[in-house]
Amino acid sequence: MRIDTTTSAPKITAANSADDAGVSSNVRLLIFLRDRGIIVLWIVLVIFFAFWASPYFFTLANAGLIANAAALAAIFGAAVGIGILSGALDLSIPGSATIAAVVGAISIKAGAPAWLCIVIALLVGASVGIVNGLLVQRGLNPLVVTIAMLTTLGGLAQVISGGVPVTGITQLKWMGSTSYLGIPAPVFVVAIVFIAGWLFLTQTRAGARVLGVGGNIEAVRRAGVNADRYRILGFVLSGIFAAVGGLLVMATTTQASPNPSVDLLFSALTAVALSGMPLTGGRGSLPRVLVGALIIVSISSALIIRGIPPYWATIVTGVLLVLALAFEKLMSSAVAKRLAPAPTATLDTGAPPTASFTVPRTSKTKEA
Fold this sequence. Notes:
The chain crosses the membrane at residues 38-58, 64-84, 114-136, 143-160, 180-201, 232-252, 264-282, 289-305, 311-328. It is a multi-pass membrane protein. Pfam families: BPD_transp_2 (PF02653). By secondary structure, this protein is mostly helical. A hairpin with a 2-residue loop joins strand 3 (179-180) and strand 4. The termini are close together. A two-stranded antiparallel ribbon has the order 1-6. A two-stranded antiparallel ribbon has the order 2-5. The radius of gyration is 27 Å and the shape is globular. 68% of the residues lie in helices and 4% in strands. The chain has a domain at 71-286.
């Protein structure tokens, strides 16, 4: 039984409302910086480079080169990002891209049409995702599983190709080295993939469940949803995106190399980190991954125009990766702190403080 001696209802003053409004405004600003700050950063960098690397950076020709290079970084960033959104960091992306490209190239060499080569490559990427998902579902560590898969796929690609690149693949030039209206073909391919991925995550029930599994898999299970199925789906989508990336590389270079490129994985991880996507999953945006890729390529382009050695671009990219992770952690902590309820609240009651106490209920205590 609780006995409360309060004699009048408390009155919330106008100052409290003003404070609440101020806190809400601060939270909105922090959320904007966390989720949209990358766009502001890219615009600032473009304006800076337009003057610093003038007159060659801010030209249509250089914009086409940046868009083409960013397309490859973005598609692999999407492959990593979709895995993170589902709650698993897939490090086998370069291996999936390599094995898909090699198998597709050999299919073309065997006389298969270009469309069938694409289908086969996508199926290979999806199969790798299924295997990764099933192994992780058995309780194995995702990082260990995907690193082992990366190594295995690289070896398989060497075996299938005989240890040498599969050359002379010109049937896919329409999606690689060709330009349409002055825009490189890979830009159109990446635009289609990103739009499809964005619509899937934001407009479908399956996409919402993939995000839910990445955010809190136990809550999804308690809701009666087969969480393991959607975790596997995340790996499958990651493998398909990686296969698209492998096809783009093959279409651009007209050959399929059996050696996985770890540099692509590093660029993809950096683009994802710059987008503000937490590595714990559940929150993020594929369009912001695209902006992250544009930032990486823009920095590299500006340094090359200024005659600065390429290895400085690698150093800057590594520093950006660390800063992006630190910034995301700082903003997330600040938002959580602002949204956390205060332990105590002070109200203007217009009367002296009152007292209340609780009488423990026992077998002899009677309700009033």
